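pasting for ref
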Amino acid sequence: MTHWFHRNPLKATAPVSFNYYGVASSPAAAKICNDLRSSRTRLLELFVDSTCNSEMMKNATDSYFSLLQGFINSLDESTQESKLRYIQNFKWTDTLQGHVPSAQQDAVFELISMGFNVALWYTKYASRLAGKENITEDEAKEVHRSLKTAAGIFKHLKENQIPKLITPAEKGRDLEARLIDAYIIQCQAEAQEVTIARAIELKHNSGLIAALAYETSNFYQRADHTLSSLEPMYTAKWRKYLHLKMCFYTAYAYCYHGQTLLASDKCGEAIRSLQESEKFYTKAEALCKEYGETKGPGTTAKPSGHLFFRKLGSLVKNTLEKCQRENGFMPSPNQKKK
Protein backbone atom coordinates (compact mmCIF):
# COMPACT_ATOMS: atom_id res chain seq x y z
CA MET A 1 0.00 0.00 0.00
CA THR A 2 1.44 3.36 -0.96
CA HIS A 3 1.84 5.99 1.73
CA TRP A 4 -0.52 8.97 1.71
CA PHE A 5 0.97 11.01 4.57
CA HIS A 6 4.49 12.37 4.97
CA ARG A 7 5.92 11.55 8.39
CA ASN A 8 9.04 13.01 10.01
CA PRO A 9 11.16 10.69 12.18
CA LEU A 10 10.61 10.25 15.90
CA LYS A 11 12.91 12.02 18.33
CA ALA A 12 15.70 9.83 19.76
CA THR A 13 16.89 10.05 23.35
CA ALA A 14 19.77 8.95 25.56
CA PRO A 15 19.05 6.32 28.24
CA VAL A 16 18.19 7.60 31.73
CA SER A 17 19.03 5.42 34.75
CA PHE A 18 17.20 7.45 37.44
CA ASN A 19 19.80 6.26 39.96
CA TYR A 20 20.14 8.83 42.73
CA TYR A 21 22.38 7.30 45.35
CA GLY A 22 22.28 9.32 48.57
CA VAL A 23 19.12 11.12 47.44
CA ALA A 24 16.66 8.29 46.89
CA SER A 25 17.74 6.32 49.93
CA SER A 26 14.49 4.77 51.16
CA PRO A 27 12.99 1.58 49.63
CA ALA A 28 9.91 3.55 48.50
CA ALA A 29 12.05 6.17 46.71
CA ALA A 30 14.16 3.45 45.11
CA LYS A 31 10.99 1.75 43.84
CA ILE A 32 9.75 4.99 42.27
CA CYS A 33 13.08 5.40 40.48
CA ASN A 34 12.90 1.80 39.23
CA ASP A 35 9.33 2.34 38.06
CA LEU A 36 10.38 5.54 36.28
CA ARG A 37 13.17 3.74 34.46
CA SER A 38 11.01 0.78 33.43
CA SER A 39 7.99 2.90 32.39
CA ARG A 40 10.22 5.18 30.30
CA THR A 41 11.80 2.18 28.60
CA ARG A 42 8.37 0.68 27.96
CA LEU A 43 7.08 3.88 26.39
CA LEU A 44 10.10 4.18 24.11
CA GLU A 45 9.62 0.57 22.99
CA LEU A 46 5.97 1.17 22.12
CA PHE A 47 6.87 4.07 19.83
CA VAL A 48 8.38 1.57 17.38
CA ASP A 49 6.06 -1.38 18.07
CA SER A 50 3.81 -1.96 15.03
CA THR A 51 1.25 -3.79 17.20
CA CYS A 52 0.77 -0.85 19.58
CA ASN A 53 -2.71 0.68 19.58
CA SER A 54 -4.10 3.86 21.12
CA GLU A 55 -5.18 2.15 24.36
CA MET A 56 -1.70 0.69 24.91
CA MET A 57 -0.13 4.08 24.22
CA LYS A 58 -2.48 5.88 26.62
CA ASN A 59 -1.75 3.41 29.43
CA ALA A 60 2.01 3.71 28.90
CA THR A 61 1.98 7.52 28.76
CA ASP A 62 -0.23 7.75 31.86
CA SER A 63 2.16 5.45 33.72
CA TYR A 64 5.31 7.40 32.87
CA PHE A 65 3.97 10.95 33.05
CA SER A 66 2.25 10.37 36.40
CA LEU A 67 5.60 9.33 37.89
CA LEU A 68 7.49 12.14 36.15
CA GLN A 69 5.15 14.70 37.73
CA GLY A 70 6.96 14.06 41.02
CA PHE A 71 10.06 15.62 39.43
CA ILE A 72 8.10 18.68 38.26
CA ASN A 73 5.49 19.60 40.86
CA SER A 74 5.75 19.68 44.65
CA LEU A 75 3.94 16.81 46.35
CA ASP A 76 2.53 19.02 49.13
CA GLU A 77 -0.18 20.33 46.76
CA SER A 78 1.39 23.79 46.67
CA THR A 79 2.10 25.65 43.44
CA GLN A 80 5.85 25.32 43.98
CA GLU A 81 7.98 23.19 41.70
CA SER A 82 9.62 19.97 42.85
CA LYS A 83 13.13 20.14 44.33
CA LEU A 84 14.01 17.29 41.96
CA ARG A 85 13.18 19.21 38.77
CA TYR A 86 16.83 19.93 37.88
CA ILE A 87 18.47 16.77 39.22
CA GLN A 88 18.63 14.87 35.91
CA ASN A 89 20.06 15.76 32.50
CA PHE A 90 17.96 14.68 29.49
CA LYS A 91 19.12 14.45 25.87
CA TRP A 92 16.84 14.43 22.85
CA THR A 93 17.34 14.79 19.11
CA ASP A 94 15.01 16.79 16.84
CA THR A 95 12.73 15.50 14.12
CA LEU A 96 14.43 17.61 11.43
CA GLN A 97 17.95 17.94 12.88
CA GLY A 98 18.19 14.43 14.30
CA HIS A 99 21.97 14.14 14.25
CA VAL A 100 22.42 17.10 16.61
CA PRO A 101 20.95 16.41 20.10
CA SER A 102 19.71 19.02 22.57
CA ALA A 103 20.22 18.61 26.31
CA GLN A 104 18.63 20.27 29.31
CA GLN A 105 18.89 19.41 33.00
CA ASP A 106 15.17 19.87 33.49
CA ALA A 107 12.31 17.37 33.98
CA VAL A 108 9.98 19.75 32.10
CA PHE A 109 12.22 19.35 29.04
CA GLU A 110 11.76 15.58 29.37
CA LEU A 111 7.99 15.95 29.67
CA ILE A 112 7.85 18.14 26.56
CA SER A 113 10.18 15.98 24.48
CA MET A 114 8.47 12.73 25.38
CA GLY A 115 5.07 14.36 24.84
CA PHE A 116 6.24 15.51 21.42
CA ASN A 117 7.05 11.90 20.54
CA VAL A 118 3.65 10.76 21.80
CA ALA A 119 2.00 13.27 19.46
CA LEU A 120 4.17 12.06 16.57
CA TRP A 121 3.21 8.47 17.39
CA TYR A 122 -0.49 9.35 17.07
CA THR A 123 0.16 10.82 13.60
CA LYS A 124 2.06 7.68 12.60
CA TYR A 125 -0.68 5.47 14.05
CA ALA A 126 -3.27 7.40 12.03
CA SER A 127 -1.16 6.93 8.90
CA ARG A 128 -0.85 3.19 9.58
CA LEU A 129 -4.62 2.80 10.00
CA ALA A 130 -5.40 4.94 6.95
CA GLY A 131 -3.02 2.84 4.85
CA LYS A 132 -5.09 -0.32 5.27
CA GLU A 133 -7.16 -1.72 2.41
CA ASN A 134 -10.92 -1.23 2.77
CA ILE A 135 -10.75 0.92 5.89
CA THR A 136 -13.94 0.65 7.96
CA GLU A 137 -16.02 3.52 9.28
CA ASP A 138 -14.78 2.86 12.83
CA GLU A 139 -11.17 2.87 11.62
CA ALA A 140 -11.74 6.14 9.77
CA LYS A 141 -13.10 7.62 13.01
CA GLU A 142 -9.99 6.34 14.84
CA VAL A 143 -7.74 7.99 12.24
CA HIS A 144 -9.62 11.28 12.70
CA ARG A 145 -9.48 10.97 16.50
CA SER A 146 -5.76 10.19 16.50
CA LEU A 147 -4.93 13.23 14.39
CA LYS A 148 -7.05 15.45 16.63
CA THR A 149 -5.30 13.98 19.68
CA ALA A 150 -1.88 14.70 18.16
CA ALA A 151 -2.88 18.30 17.37
CA GLY A 152 -4.15 18.72 20.93
CA ILE A 153 -0.89 17.44 22.44
CA PHE A 154 1.22 19.74 20.26
CA LYS A 155 -1.01 22.68 21.20
CA HIS A 156 -0.81 21.86 24.93
CA LEU A 157 2.99 21.61 24.80
CA LYS A 158 3.28 24.93 22.99
CA GLU A 159 0.89 26.87 25.22
CA ASN A 160 1.32 25.28 28.65
CA GLN A 161 4.66 23.47 28.93
CA ILE A 162 7.29 25.09 26.69
CA PRO A 163 6.86 28.51 28.38
CA LYS A 164 7.97 26.86 31.65
CA LEU A 165 11.45 26.04 30.31
CA ILE A 166 14.33 28.01 31.82
CA THR A 167 16.33 27.56 28.61
CA PRO A 168 14.24 28.93 25.72
CA ALA A 169 13.53 26.85 22.63
CA GLU A 170 16.26 27.09 20.00
CA LYS A 171 15.33 28.48 16.59
CA GLY A 172 14.60 25.84 13.98
CA ARG A 173 14.30 23.05 16.53
CA ASP A 174 11.24 21.05 17.53
CA LEU A 175 10.18 23.17 20.48
CA GLU A 176 10.20 26.42 18.51
CA ALA A 177 6.75 27.88 17.79
CA ARG A 178 6.98 27.83 14.00
CA LEU A 179 7.75 24.11 13.89
CA ILE A 180 5.04 23.14 16.36
CA ASP A 181 2.51 25.30 14.50
CA ALA A 182 3.34 23.44 11.28
CA TYR A 183 2.71 20.10 13.00
CA ILE A 184 -0.59 21.34 14.46
CA ILE A 185 -1.87 22.66 11.13
CA GLN A 186 -0.82 19.51 9.27
CA CYS A 187 -2.76 17.39 11.79
CA GLN A 188 -5.82 19.59 11.29
CA ALA A 189 -5.51 19.29 7.51
CA GLU A 190 -5.14 15.52 7.58
CA ALA A 191 -8.07 15.13 9.97
CA GLN A 192 -10.17 17.07 7.50
CA GLU A 193 -8.98 14.79 4.70
CA VAL A 194 -10.76 11.96 6.52
CA THR A 195 -13.94 14.08 6.59
CA ILE A 196 -13.66 14.76 2.84
CA ALA A 197 -13.13 11.09 1.99
CA ARG A 198 -16.18 10.20 4.07
CA ALA A 199 -18.28 12.95 2.44
CA ILE A 200 -17.34 11.69 -1.03
CA GLU A 201 -18.11 8.10 -0.05
CA LEU A 202 -21.56 9.11 1.25
CA LYS A 203 -22.16 11.21 -1.90
CA HIS A 204 -22.75 14.43 0.00
CA ASN A 205 -23.56 17.71 -1.73
CA SER A 206 -20.79 18.70 -4.16
CA GLY A 207 -20.81 22.26 -2.81
CA LEU A 208 -20.02 20.98 0.68
CA ILE A 209 -17.17 18.82 -0.60
CA ALA A 210 -15.77 21.76 -2.58
CA ALA A 211 -15.85 23.96 0.55
CA LEU A 212 -14.13 21.29 2.67
CA ALA A 213 -11.47 20.73 0.01
CA TYR A 214 -10.80 24.46 -0.30
CA GLU A 215 -10.43 24.79 3.48
CA THR A 216 -8.07 21.79 3.56
CA SER A 217 -6.00 23.34 0.78
CA ASN A 218 -5.72 26.50 2.89
CA PHE A 219 -4.55 24.46 5.89
CA TYR A 220 -1.72 22.99 3.84
CA GLN A 221 -0.81 26.40 2.45
CA ARG A 222 -0.64 27.82 6.00
CA ALA A 223 1.56 24.96 7.18
CA ASP A 224 3.90 25.50 4.23
CA HIS A 225 4.05 29.24 4.92
CA THR A 226 4.85 28.56 8.59
CA LEU A 227 7.96 26.63 7.52
CA SER A 228 9.03 29.13 4.86
CA SER A 229 11.39 31.08 7.15
CA LEU A 230 13.21 27.98 8.42
CA GLU A 231 16.40 26.42 7.03
CA PRO A 232 15.57 24.84 3.60
CA MET A 233 18.11 22.06 4.20
CA TYR A 234 15.78 20.58 6.82
CA THR A 235 12.35 21.67 5.58
CA ALA A 236 12.52 21.36 1.76
CA LYS A 237 11.11 17.83 1.57
CA TRP A 238 8.36 18.48 4.10
CA ARG A 239 7.38 21.70 2.30
CA LYS A 240 7.17 19.90 -1.07
CA TYR A 241 4.69 17.50 0.50
CA LEU A 242 2.62 20.34 1.95
CA HIS A 243 2.66 22.17 -1.38
CA LEU A 244 1.56 19.13 -3.39
CA LYS A 245 -1.29 18.45 -0.96
CA MET A 246 -2.31 22.10 -1.26
CA CYS A 247 -2.46 21.78 -5.05
CA PHE A 248 -4.27 18.46 -4.84
CA TYR A 249 -7.07 19.77 -2.65
CA THR A 250 -7.33 22.98 -4.67
CA ALA A 251 -7.94 20.71 -7.67
CA TYR A 252 -10.60 18.87 -5.66
CA ALA A 253 -12.27 22.17 -4.72
CA TYR A 254 -12.42 23.38 -8.33
CA CYS A 255 -13.65 19.98 -9.54
CA TYR A 256 -16.58 19.79 -7.14
CA HIS A 257 -17.36 23.47 -7.56
CA GLY A 258 -17.54 22.76 -11.28
CA GLN A 259 -20.07 20.00 -10.60
CA THR A 260 -22.18 22.46 -8.59
CA LEU A 261 -22.09 24.96 -11.48
CA LEU A 262 -22.97 22.23 -13.99
CA ALA A 263 -26.00 21.22 -11.93
CA SER A 264 -27.15 24.87 -12.15
CA ASP A 265 -26.78 24.83 -15.97
CA LYS A 266 -23.80 27.19 -15.81
CA CYS A 267 -21.77 25.19 -18.30
CA GLY A 268 -19.35 27.94 -19.29
CA GLU A 269 -18.41 28.67 -15.68
CA ALA A 270 -18.25 24.94 -14.94
CA ILE A 271 -15.77 24.43 -17.80
CA ARG A 272 -13.54 27.22 -16.48
CA SER A 273 -13.67 25.70 -12.99
CA LEU A 274 -12.78 22.25 -14.32
CA GLN A 275 -9.92 23.69 -16.36
CA GLU A 276 -8.53 25.23 -13.16
CA SER A 277 -8.93 21.85 -11.47
CA GLU A 278 -7.03 20.17 -14.29
CA LYS A 279 -4.24 22.75 -13.99
CA PHE A 280 -3.79 22.19 -10.24
CA TYR A 281 -4.01 18.41 -10.61
CA THR A 282 -1.23 18.48 -13.22
CA LYS A 283 0.82 20.66 -10.88
CA ALA A 284 0.23 18.22 -8.02
CA GLU A 285 1.43 15.34 -10.22
CA ALA A 286 4.63 17.22 -11.02
CA LEU A 287 5.16 18.04 -7.33
CA CYS A 288 4.76 14.36 -6.42
CA LYS A 289 7.79 13.62 -8.57
CA GLU A 290 9.75 16.58 -7.17
CA TYR A 291 8.85 15.55 -3.62
CA GLY A 292 10.12 12.02 -4.24
CA GLU A 293 13.43 13.39 -5.53
CA THR A 294 13.93 15.93 -2.72
CA LYS A 295 16.31 14.88 0.03
CA GLY A 296 15.44 15.44 3.65
CA PRO A 297 14.19 13.86 6.88
CA GLY A 298 11.13 11.66 6.99
CA THR A 299 9.46 8.77 5.21
CA THR A 300 8.60 9.47 1.59
CA ALA A 301 4.88 9.38 0.86
CA LYS A 302 3.70 8.28 -2.60
CA PRO A 303 0.42 10.12 -3.15
CA SER A 304 0.47 9.74 -6.94
CA GLY A 305 0.27 5.94 -6.55
CA HIS A 306 -2.75 6.17 -4.24
CA LEU A 307 -6.22 5.33 -5.60
CA PHE A 308 -7.64 8.49 -4.01
CA PHE A 309 -5.15 10.57 -6.04
CA ARG A 310 -5.74 8.73 -9.33
CA LYS A 311 -9.52 8.87 -8.94
CA LEU A 312 -9.44 12.66 -8.94
CA GLY A 313 -7.58 12.69 -12.26
CA SER A 314 -10.30 10.57 -13.87
CA LEU A 315 -13.06 12.60 -12.22
CA VAL A 316 -11.67 15.90 -13.50
CA LYS A 317 -11.27 14.53 -17.03
CA ASN A 318 -14.74 12.97 -17.18
CA THR A 319 -16.51 15.96 -15.60
CA LEU A 320 -14.78 18.40 -17.95
CA GLU A 321 -15.78 16.31 -20.97
CA LYS A 322 -19.36 16.19 -19.69
CA CYS A 323 -19.39 19.98 -19.27
CA GLN A 324 -18.08 20.48 -22.79
CA ARG A 325 -20.66 18.10 -24.27
CA GLU A 326 -23.54 19.75 -22.45
CA ASN A 327 -22.23 23.19 -23.36
CA GLY A 328 -22.30 22.15 -27.01
CA PHE A 329 -25.94 21.11 -26.73
CA MET A 330 -27.07 24.37 -25.18
CA PRO A 331 -28.71 26.78 -27.64
CA SER A 332 -26.96 30.06 -28.30
CA PRO A 333 -28.69 33.36 -27.43
CA ASN A 334 -29.54 33.89 -31.14
CA GLN A 335 -31.13 30.45 -31.43
CA LYS A 336 -33.26 31.18 -28.35
CA LYS A 337 -34.65 34.32 -30.06
CA LYS A 338 -35.80 32.30 -33.05
